[in-house]
Design a protein that fits this description.
The structure holds two protein chains of two kinds. By secondary structure, chain A is mostly helical. Helices cover about 70% and strands about 5% of the residues of chain A. Chain A has one domain (about 5-330): ABC transporter involved in vitamin B12 uptake, BtuC. The chains are: A mainly alpha, B mainly alpha.
Chain lengths: ~325, ~300
């Protein structure tokens, strides 16, 4: 292993085998033993949100694009997955496909595919404006789809889709067992996490970072930045959809909460608390926020107020986030 | 009474009126957002919460101090605007050198705090606010019934919007403002106190939101979440209007309100989403917005 002597340079350049690999191994070990110490349902919730936050971070942390409408992909994927697992019949105004209720792996795949499609549509609209307008457009599009979810028949309106069967994975593993379900969620999360890591460290990811730093310059170097931004958006939406679909199967429920703008705000908060543009930050942030909601649930409205205060404090004093500060302190990359 | 396209004229014009009312709120709010964004480079997510605070200020002034509607129409924007200036001095002023996105995130946090506190204090259900006696009742115009208060709301918003346009586009103060938007450093070099101007601009924009809140109080119930759904629609209005034109913001606001009202008559299910659909179409055809200048 080569080590760069200059401490500043070691922060600036990514070591090939170093802090991130160690941190990853530690994270996997912690998640492997966690269900024996903590409530598996809580862990599964946190893992779903961790994947959601990682997907969101891909866009803001590496592409510099703030989407304020990611609940659109998370929530709609969870509706589609829940519907496919419970009912299966696809009835659109112009045609009907009578599928049987699908097994969980196909339901999740279906939800994820719909999120990818929605990401393609929303993304191609949103990238037509830069900066702050991008955030406003994504928020507005998500609100539109919120109203669709409220009015569409298959979503069940205020009730949502309840009593979704967890089913059997590949027809073999019974997912009503919480530990089996946990293993599946962990596998989905790790798959998504590694994919995000791969994307960030690919040539595509490097171009994305270049666009974040200076879009005009990237254009002048001959990159078709719109295509890069759109692909990043679709990838992020797809992974957010994967998280939402999985969550619907785990909790056997898809509801309006998951498409509401406050959910879009929550994923921003998780990523901000953990650290924008860090690999592990969104995971830490998701666990902090989900844990906080869990333990402070008795305080009612104050949870919202506390979240707001965390937002303000993070933006004013703590922009690196927990993991970002840690990495800065230890002078490593996380 | 007569019919147009099979719809009774009273229903048609009634919805048109509601559309104009909503349009006047869209215009007042998007105008405030535009003024703030021009000067501070911050999209004020808390604009909806400040609109709600305006309505609550009127409600509380009446409950606690027996201040009537017309006094509240002046006092509430001043009070809420002053709170806004305090927010600018305490929080926002530290963000001007950072990416614009941080302003959005910070004001989003403020929304959670403000709405959470009001929900804790007053619950989610709305509080009624009486229409003042002078503006009660209405007149029959033959083709529709026009409640006096609604006519008043439209008139006040129009006057305030046009006055704002006049001040910004046609007076010396407005010229300073526009210059400071373009190049704050140079304007500062001419001896104008730009930071104070920024604070006052923010206070003014917030005051406009609070004014809209007071106007809305007798029409809708005064409730903690009255602003958050509205502000997202106003964001879409701002995207449709495009950056850089005060008159554009006013026209887009009123126009979209009317379109939304008409949608309620002809296709009620789509009335919630029509503005967002228009936004998508505008983005496809004219990405810079209807009145926007190309960057």
């Amino acid at each position: 292993m080569e080590r760069v002597v200059d401490p500043l340079a070691s922060v600036a350049t990514a070591p090939r085998m170093g802090s991130q690999t160690i941190a990853f191994v530690l994270m996997v070990l912690a998640f492997a033993v966690a269900p024996f110490f903590a409530y598996p349902v809580f862990l599964m919730k946190a893992l779903c949100f961790a994947l959601f936050a990682c997907a969101f971070n891909l866009l803001i942390g590496y592409g510099g694009l703030l989407s304020f409408g990611h609940a659109l992909f998370f929530g709609w994927a969870s509706y589609v997955a829940a519907h496919m697992a419970k009912v299966g019949v696809i009835s659109l105004p112009w045609f009907t496909i009578a599928l049987p209720p699908l097994p969980p792996e196909l339901a999740i795949l279906f939800g994820t595919a719909v999120a990818a499609l929605l990401g393609l549509i929303a993304g191609s609209l949103a990238i037509r404006r830069q900066g702050i307008y991008f955030a406003m457009i994504t928020l507005a599009l998500a609100q539109m789809m919120y109203f669709f979810a409220l009015q569409a028949k298959f979503t069940g309106g205020e009730d949502g889709i309840q009593a979704v069967p967890r089913g059997r994975l590949f027809g073999i593993v019974d997912l009503s067992n919480d530990l089996a379900m946990y293993a599946v969620v962990l596998a989905v999360f790790l798959g998504g996490f590694l994919l995000v890591y791969r994307i960030i460290h690919s040539p595509f990811g490097e171009v994305l970072k270049a666009i974040r730093e200076n879009e005009a310059r990237a254009i002048s170097l001959g990159y078709k930045t719109d295509r890069y931004k759109l692909l990043a958006f679709v990838l992020s939406a797809t992974l957010a959809g994967l998280a939402g679909s999985t969550k619907a199967i785990v909790f056997q429920l898809a509801s309006l909460t998951d498409v509401h703008w406050s959910m879009s705000g929550e994923v921003v908060l998780m990523t901000l608390v953990g650290g924008l543009g860090t690999v592990f930050g969104p995971v830490a942030g998701a666990f902090i926020i989900v844990g906080m909601q869990n333990y402070l649930a008795g305080f009612g409205e104050w949870v919202t107020v506390i979240q707001g205060v965390i937002f303000v404090v993070c933006v004013l004093l703590f922009r690196r986030g927990v993991i970002g500060e840690l990495a800065h302190l230890l002078r490593i990359k996380l | 009474m007569f019919e147009i396209f099979g719809i009774p004229s009273t229903a048609l014009f009634g919805q048109l009126l509601i559309g104009l009312i909503n349009g006047s709120f869209y215009a007042l709010l998007s105008l405030g957002l535009a003024v703030i964004f021009g000067m501070l480079n911050i999209i004020n997510f808390a604009h909806g919460a400040q609109y709600m605070m305006g309505a609550f200020a009127a409600f509380l002034l009446l409950q606690a101090l027996d201040v009537n509607y017309f006094a509240a129409l002046v006092l509430a924007p001043i009070i809420v605007g002053a709170i806004g200036m305090l927010i600018e001095r305490c929080f926002l002023q530290w963000l001007y050198r950072l990416d614009h996105l941080y302003g959005l995130l910070l004001t989003f946090g403020l929304v959670l705090i403000i709405e959470g506190i009001f929900r804790h204090l007053y619950g989610s259900s709305g509080q009624p606010y009486e229409v003042p006696d002078v503006l009660k009742g209405g007149r029959n115009l033959g083709f529709m019934f026009l409640p006096n208060y609604r006519a008043w709301v439209i008139a006040v918003s129009l006057v305030v919007c046009l006055a704002t346009w006049f001040v910004i586009e046609r007076t010396r103060l407005g010229a300073y403002l526009r210059a400071a938007t373009e190049n704050p450093t140079l304007v500062r070099a001419f001896g104008i106190n730009v930071p104070r101007m920024i604070t006052l601009t923010y206070g003014f924009g917030v005051g406009l939101a609070a004014l809209a809140g007071v106007l809305a109080a007798p029409i809708y119930n005064v409730s903690p979440q009255m602003g958050s759904d509205l502000i997202i629609v106003v964001f879409a209005v701002v995207v449709i209007g495009g950056k850089g034109s005060i008159m554009g913001a006013i026209l887009t606001g009123f126009g979209l309100g009317v379109i939304e009202g008409l949608t309620k008559v002809f296709w009620p299910e789509a009335s919630n989403t029509v503005i967002f659909v228009i936004m998508a179409i505008v983005l496809l055809i004219r990405p810079a917005g209807l009145f926007g200048r190309r960057a």
